[in-house]
Structure formats: structure tokens, C-alpha cells
Amino acid sequence: MNAPFFCMTGRSCEQAILKLLDYFNDGYEWIVDIDLEKFFDNVPQDRLMSLVNVIINDGDTESLIRKYLQAGVMVNGHYEETNLGTPQGGNLSPLLSNIMLNELDKELDARGLRFTRYADDCVIVVKSESSEKRVMRTITDYIERKLGLKVVLDVNPEFFAKAGASPNDISVFHMIQADVLRMDIAFSEEDNLKLLQNPYGIKIMFNASAAVRPEMIQSLITKGADPERILVGHNFYPQRYTGMKLEKFLKLSKEFHDTGAHVEAFITSHNEPTHGVWDARCGLCTVERMRDLPIDLQYRELAATGVIDDICIGNAYASDQEFEDIQKSAEEFEPDPENPIIKTLIKRGAKMESFHPQKKIKVCLEPEITSIEKEIMFDFFPHSDVGDSSEWIWRSRMPRFFYRDKAIPARKSELLNFQPGSVLMVNDNYKHYAGEVQIALMPVLNDGTRNLIGTISSDEMQMLELIHDLDTVVFMEEK
Q: Following DSSP, what letter does each residue of 394-413 receive, concatenated?
């Protein structure tokens, strides 16, 4: 039974894997692995709606779906139209993706091919290398021509030789309508320049972890390569303890980003079960210390670096809840220029763009927190440390100016010291500073002038390493 296994009643990821094992046992050992890059971002809406019309044929329902698709999104605090794709993590996305890719399923069935599909990951199995090449070529052509999606090929010089390609001639990849060639191992700088100057507009992604240096990328641009054609992708690392050090990752990513190249990195899902390359059992992330973090915290950390353009999930498949958590982490508060706080800051020289990006930290609240304390934590905007705080605390002082007339009664605590990760608010025992939000970075003496608002977990404390002076910080409640 060839069938999609994603969001289908009675079907699961495990069944998709077992079906593949059956095919392997029957001698179908050559794999055509089709990963439809960023499917949910690239669905042609007109094509999708024409398929919806065939299935539903109800004007009111179709109108609602069209409005859903074109509702727009907030990116870095700015509204962007959505004339292409479906919202990731949205309630209708699984249904709409199955409607769209049902066309691919029917095409594969009509050709008598054995395959399984889960969401936008489709695996076709055949019995010979020649069949694998033929199916890759013809199915890629169908995807491009009929579905209008993007195809990325993961290649290396050895594969070039087998495919009859060279840096001077990548017509074979153009023939199968590839959009991007990811060079797992790169050629020489001279040959890389030839690749980038291909006449087909195929973009080249270089492996950031395979001896390609930022200096080479800069040299390629200096020699005439179009930066828009250059992508740089970090690896993912299946084996625990083998991922990149954060410091090295940040340094290398910044250097690549500064050349003008587009940089991507991986986070990992913790959904069960997941799968990935090389029998991946411990997730597929780029930075080792992020491996066991919740997926939304991984996302927030990579976004906070300011040097990663695309954040990809390395393993399959993230849960709906994980997508929802990422979506919430990606949403940014859009400041109202008529808000008295924003007005005051603008009068003092702030620009609207200075309130973006917004770096988010989750806080587990104390049960005794008052409504005014909660309002200051979550409704006040923007929280920011101006840069003159000590090594003991991170300090958002602005709230005290706008809540000076509000009562913040002292709340008794038996703690002798507030430990690192404690979220504090200055209370009325020190009225001049009442309303300030502080995060303890070292043990802070409990002298009765601060209320304990909540705590930040040790994992969340990692975010503070990526928050710099004058950065805008938004607090989120840890549920």
C-alpha cells in the first residue's frame, strides 16, 4: 500500500518506516529521497485553491481558506503579506499539504513506483542505480513543473563525476530542474567560482563545517560571484557530544554572515519517534549544547545570535505543539508609536527599528505575584539593560518611571540570598527604584527591597549569554 502517513487517521510515522522496510526486504534497495524544501512556505496558493475547489466546491468555505492563507504574518515586528505558502503550525496546514501533495502521490502510483510519504518528505525505492537516476530526474521535473516547489540536491565532487557533471557544466542538474546544489564537499575556489557563475541561476550552498572559510566566500564575491547565489549551511551532528561549540559557531557564523552570504543552521525536534540520517537517535542539531533543549528555546537562541538567516529542523518530524511553540517564539510585539512609553523613548532619540529584534526569556512565576507585578513583567515594553549594570544583575530600569504612582508592597521571603536565575522587582521599601525588573546573575542579598517574581531555569539562563546591552527583551510565562 503506497500512502501518505502524515495526519491521516490510523497512520503514523512508524508505519511509514515499517512500509519502507518491507520494500527493502523485497529487493528495492536504491532510494530516491525527495525533501521538498520549505514546503509550507512555498505552496502556490492558486494551484492549491484549485485543488480545494475540486474537493470542497463550496464558495463560503473556500473564501475562508483563502483568507486564512493570505492573512499575513509578523516578521521582526513588521507585517508581511503571505501570497505564497501556508502558515507553518497552522490548524489547516496538515490538511492543505496533504491535498496538495496528493497530486504527487497519484503521480507516483500511476507510474507504479513504491514509496512512502510523511508530510513533505517522500521516499521512493527502486531496484537499480539506473532506475534511481531516471526516477530522480523525472520526478524532480514533475515537482517543479506541476507543483511549483523547490528542490535541493546534496552533492559532492564524487557525485558530480558519477552524474557526468563538472564545475563548468551542471546542465544535468538544470535538466532535472534543481534549485540549489548543497556542496557537502566543495571544489577549489576557482571551480567554486565557475559553479556560482552557472548560466541556469542554480544557487550553491557551501558546507560551513567542511573547510570552506569565510575568506573564500569573500574572495568569490570580490571576483564577481553574486552574493544572492551564495548560501552557507552548517552541518547537523547525529552523534551526541560531537556538535559545534557555541563560541566557535558564533564566530564562524558571524564571519560568514558579514560576507553577505545567507547562513542556515539546524535545531532538533524531541517528538517521538523521530528519524534522520545515519540512524540518528539523539536528534540532529548544529550546536551541541542545544541538543536537549526544548525546540522553542533552541529557536530563540539561534534567532538571538542575529547571524542565522534560516533555522531548519534537522530530524523528522516535529510535533504540532513544537511548531506552535516556535511560532509563539517568532512572534514579535509591534510597539505603538502613540504609546506614552514609546513616545518618550522616541523623543529621547530611539528609532522604531531599535525595538527589534526582540529576545525572549521564559519565567516560571511565583504564586504570590500581584497583578501589577505581572503587568510590569509581561505588558510593559520595552525591557532593556542600558549597559551600566554590575556583574550581579541584569537590570530593566524603565518601568520605574512609568509605575512610580503604583504600589508595589514588599513581600516577605525567608531566603537569605536570591540565587542566579531569580527574577526580582524592586518594591516600595526602596520607592525611588520601585518597579525595576532585575535578574540575579550571582547570589544577591535579600535586604527586603526586592520581591521574588519568578525563576528562570538553568536552560533559559543560556539566553542571557546572547542578550547584549540595549537589546529589547520580552518575558514569556513558563506554563
A: EEE-THHHHSTTS-------
